[in-house]
Structure formats: C-alpha cells, structure tokens
Sequence to fold (270 residues):
Amino acid sequence: MTTSITASNTPAADSFIRQTLTRRTNFFGIPETTKAFGMLVVPPCDLLLPTEREVDRAKERGERLILCGPISMVHMYEALANKLGDGKLLYNLDWYGDGKEEFFAKVFWPDWHYRFTTEGVIERTLGENYLTQTRSLVTYLTERVYEGQPLPKLYADAVEEFNRREEALANLLDEDWKKAAEELAGLQVNRLFRETPDLVLWDVFLSKKVNGIYVLPDTRTWTNQRSSYGDLVYVGNADVDGVRVGYDDPWFTYGNLGARFSCRVHGLVA
Fold:
C-alpha cells in the first residue's frame, strides 16, 4: 500500500528544529553554514523544511538535518585552499584531482535544499558488497524511517524496482562487475538514499567547523557515483590528514566500508 505524493503537513519552525536537534548541533542551517564559511550564506528562496513529526522521528534515529547547496568538491577544495581546521580537507587528489573524474568537479545538486543524513553508516552495511548494502538501505527505509507506515509512492516505486531487479543484479555481479556497477548506481533507491561524494565532503566540513568533530573518522560510505574506470566511489576516513576518496568494484567488501542513509526533504506525507 502506498500514499500519493502530496504537499507535506505544515513545515516545522526553524526554532522547533533547532530545539529538537540539540545534541552538539544536529541542525546545520543557514547560521551554521554561515559560521563555517565565515561569510553570509543566503539561499535564493525559502526552502522546504520537514514537519515536526519528521524531525521528531529523525531525532529518534540519530539523524541530522543538513542544508546542502550547489557546491562541488573542487569548489570546496579551492575556496578553502584544501584546509580544514588544523589539517587538510582532502587527503590525496592524485587519482581524481586532474580534471578527469567527473564526480570531483560536477555540481550534482543545482539548488539549495535540506536533507536528513545519518552520522555514521547504517547497520548491516559494513563489510558487505554494494548490492547487499542496498538491501540494507531498503530495510532501513521501510523498518526504521517508515516503521508501521505505508511508503510514499516515490519511495515505494524505488523499493519495487529494487525488489524486481535484485536477483538479476546479483547474477550480473558475477558476470560483468562494470555493468553491475552502472546499473546499481542508477537504481532509484541508491539515487534517493545514498549520497553523492560532494555531500559527504560537505558534511565532514560542516561537522568539523561547527561541532569540532570528524564524522566518518574510522569508516567510509559508498556513494552513488562511479569513477571513470567504472568502479563505485567511496568517501570517508576523515581526520587531520584529510578525507579519503577511493573506489572499488561493487562485489568488493571491506570491514570499514558501509553506507550512510541520506534523504532530501521532499515534502511527502510521513
């Protein structure tokens, strides 16, 4: 059973969100973004905020609400002179900083928007291949985010697509990993609930500047973008030496490679 895509219930007030998401700062809005950059950040229009119910449920899951904008990784690298606190923003650009890798320079999100994002990778994703991680993202969506509720149609359609194609994708992993990577990255579940590399870097930057902590210090999250070689790009292991960016085949597993859940505020009924 699904619900239709409709306007959200009345968006929560900024003050309610700020009061609710109070562990350190779990709400990175305009004041926090302005503080991080040291200059006034003003989105060109009023942005859709989540409802009070969505904020309360996100708090229960330990998620943060983050203002995200049309800023690429290379924009951050250049604007910050590759500095973050007393260390570096990015660790090593040898394989992607020469302009050959689209994900480094591309602006994936043309507009400012809010999104809920877990601080770390979600359960049952560490040490799993990309396909199994995707199944865990579906489980998190249906059993945690929408526990006991029907999914909005946009999300239900994405889950149905994954359920329908999961077996064939498992076979494709053994037959043609590069084609499997392309098809996995294109799944709506991964487009909707995995991050692009710039979003991960943006979160690391804001968390360090505002809260004084590194997110993903010991883990990496697999994104929904591919390298020019066809592998899937991951980001993480953030520390004073910089954020690590790498890639691997979708069937590969690492003990510290998982997936974060991240979802744009769409204004769907929750």
About this structure: The chain has one domain: 2-264.
